[in-house]
Amino acid sequence: MSDVLLSVQDLHVHFDTYAGRIYAVNGMSFDIHRSRMFGLVGESGCGKSVTGLSIVNMVPPGGKIVRGKVLLTGQNVLAMSEREMQGIRGRRISMIFQDPARSLNPVFSVGDQIVRVIRQHDHLTREGAYQRALEMFESVAMPDPERIFRSYPHELSGGMQQRIMISIALACGAELLIADEPTTALDVTIQAQILALLADLRLKERISILLITHNLGVVSETCDQVGVAYAGQIVEMGETGDVLFHSKHPYTRGLLAALPKSATRKSALQSIPGNVPDGLTLLKGCPFFDRCQYAMEHCQHTPPPLIPVGGSVKDHWIACYLYPQEQSG
Amino acid sequence: MNQTPLIEVKGLSVHFVSSHGILRRRIRRVRAVSDVDLAIYPHETLGVVGESGCGKTTLGRAILRLVKPTAGQVLFEGEDLVQLNPSEMRRRRREMQIIFQSPQLSFDSRFNVLSLVAEPLQTHTSLHGEALTQRVVELLEQTGMPGEILFRYPHEFSGGQLQRIAVARALALNPKFLVLDEPTSALDVSVQAQIINLLQRLQAELELTYLFITHDLSVIQHISDRVAVMYVGKVVELSTTDAIFNRGALHPYTKALLASAPMVDSAARRERIILQGSVPNPANPPPGCTFHPRCPVSLPICSLVEPKLVDIGDGHLASCHLLQTEVAYPIAPSVLDV
Predict the structure, then answer these.
(1) Residue contact A189–B260, C-beta within 8 A
(2) Closest approach of chain A CAs to the CA of B122, in angstroms?
(3) B86: Cα within 13 Å, side-chain hemisphere
(4) Which of A26, A63, A80, A276 has its Cα between 20 and 30 A from that of B151?
(5) Contact present, A259 and B196 (Cβ < 8 Å)
(6) Closest to A41 measured CA to CA, from A220, A306, A282, A279
(7) Is A203 helix (H, G, I), strand (E, B) or coil?
(8) Both A184 and A60 in a single domain?
(9) A97 in any annotated domain
(10) Residue A188 to residue B221, Cβ atoms within 8 A
(11) List of residues 6+ apart from A72 with CB closer than 8 A
């Protein structure tokens, strides 16, 4: 498709720690289309957060992007200088995190913090920036923007703080919002408000959203496309309905079967045996090999490529030898 | 249910009082739990669900007398735990245990597995030496951990494994009653399933009674026989799991809570009800029904009079004027279809 805003291609990120080298991201590839919400879902340690940070070239110390490209409308942001990157972050790509209280500075009012961001990118007067800030607060459905502008982070609830973060992130017209577990620290009723807001902004402001989460329910209700990550790579990807209701990869199926739902009441839940790989060894074959009930000899030696299957009109990609290439339409 | 309850909670309140201001004269009173009545029957799982700050954890702790109730009674097999003296309480403590959310924080990192699991046995029984070790191995095996891990330390285990060890420790004294406070919230989905299965198996084998506290509606639906929904220190609705999740919740808060929970299940998907505002501060709850400022269907009476938790048929308890007031009741079902 031509309306690809961001394309992550064969991304590899390693961390050097005292325990050894951690292979956090191993060949992550996906595309995010304009005005779409893409969910990157996986269990802890699957490399989803590191992928988000790599897109804005902000991998924490010790980490290194060793291979891959992140193309923003065709331009590789990983090849840019730090100065060029500063023009991208906040202006074209913004990011919000799980804990809004830690993202905001406790000693400045939230108004100061949004004005600083606006004036960093757009050369507006103080008054112009103030007006823009109020508009932004209104666009994230904040009641009484003038009062909020003067408030300090501790005076606001978690849901309000996350709204402030979203308004700061979008204040300079970002095209892509990376939301890393934006509702995990919030209560369900507040989570519903924030998710509705993101869905609304996606349509009204025509922004694309990369939603990083471990919650398949959140993905199911908000995302257009979803990528399921395991051990630093995508194992299944496609339209949300296809991936969640016609899932093919044994890991996706296992994950969905492990969720308690109305049908499983009081019966034993299916669980995936074993644990998530620790990332300390570079796996030769399929990363899910040792936990997979369908594992074949072949799986242990060569990693399966992520290929389209099913021949459906929509894209549905799987990295698994159970679905041979011949089937692809 | 016509059984005798194992635990009966009557008028339980827990208030936390702190003083503020330069002269420490400003008193802040947080009503974490206010006037809760509950009965927990033998061998059942009572789920307690609510948002953060609704008092569900405090309720669990107050039942075990880990925090001192401000008022009310907790009858354990008819004996009021609140009135027991320390030695009597100590005797009762064997019969009730608790499992916490974070298994990493539940263990002293400098103790090995043997000393961690053996501690309750050493405190309450005369087991020692070979017999003690034998019992610890038995307990570990019962929770699916190999007996060889006796001399390993907490940091060597994953979250799911540690939670199994926490379960082993909780079962050491053959308790009748367990409070499970968000036991799977810190775990990944695939591991959560293992722990839930373990808890269900042990409940059947050992005839345990559970108070299962969580904010996760799909977990509570899966594991509970009955569900209590809490909001700002009070139980607002209590009924069987089937009545709340399948036949339809009645309280507007429960409805909104169920509608907000993101579900994968397309069949379980409900019409979204998005509540405005956030949970009120329990130090300064709104007058009348604590839910009225956010309630989509509130009446004038709701801001004035606090509704009582009453039986509205078939043992389904709810506290809402719309369901109780004679005048409002006939119109209630349609009004409530928000």
Answers:
(1) yes
(2) 33
(3) 0
(4) A276
(5) no
(6) A220
(7) helix
(8) yes
(9) no
(10) no
(11) A5, A6, A88, A92, A93, A176
Per-residue confidence (pLDDT) for residue A168, from 0 to 100: 95
For B280, name the nearest residue in chain A, comparing CA atoms only.
A157
Domain extent, residue A159, equals: 102-172
Could you give the domains of chain B?
Answer: 7-95+175-336 (3.40.50.300)
| Per-residue confidence band for A62, with pLDDT thresholds at 50, 70 and 90 | very high
Residues A178 and A166 occupy one common structural domain: no
Q: Tell me which chain A residue has its CA closest to the CA of residue B267.
A: A262
pLDDT for A279 equals 83
Same domain, A149 and A184: no
At residue B149 the predicted structure's pLDDT band, cuts being 50, 70 and 90, is very high
Q: What is the per-residue pLDDT for A152?
A: 95
Rounded Cα gap, residues A125 and A119, in angstroms: 8
B203 and B196 Cβ atoms separated by less than 8 Å: no
Residue ending a domain, among A130, A150, A172, is: A172
Structure confidence at residue A44 as a pLDDT band (50, 70, 90): confident
Contact residues on chain B for A262, CB-CB shorter than 8 A? 221, 245-246, 265, 267-268
Asked if the C-beta of A199 comes within 8 angstroms of chain B's C-beta atoms, the answer is no
Q: How far apart are CA A155 and CA A109, in angstroms?
A: 10
Give per-residue pLDDT as tens, B15-29: 998 888 787 778 888
A-contacting residues of B 247-266, CB under 8 Å? 256-257, 259-266
Q: What is the pTM of this model?
A: 0.87
Strands of B96-99's sheet, edge to edge? Answer: B96-99, B177-181, B209-214, B45-49, B226-231, B234-240, B317-318, B310-311
Pair (A162, A293) in one structural domain = no
The answer to whether the Cβ–Cβ distance between B222 and A220 falls below 8 Å is no
Residues of B in contact with A265 (CB under 8 A): 221-222, 241
The ipTM is 0.81
- Where among A146, A172, A198 does a domain terminate? A172
* Residues in chain A closer than 8 A to B260 (CB atoms): 188-189, 191-192
Residue A279 lies in a domain: yes
Q: Which chain B residue has its CA at the smallest distance from A291's CA? A: B190
CA distance B226 to chain A (A): 12
Instruction: Please state which of the ranges A80-84, A260-264, B53-57 shows the lowest mean pLDDT.
Output: A260-264
Whether residue A54 is found in the same domain as residue A141: no
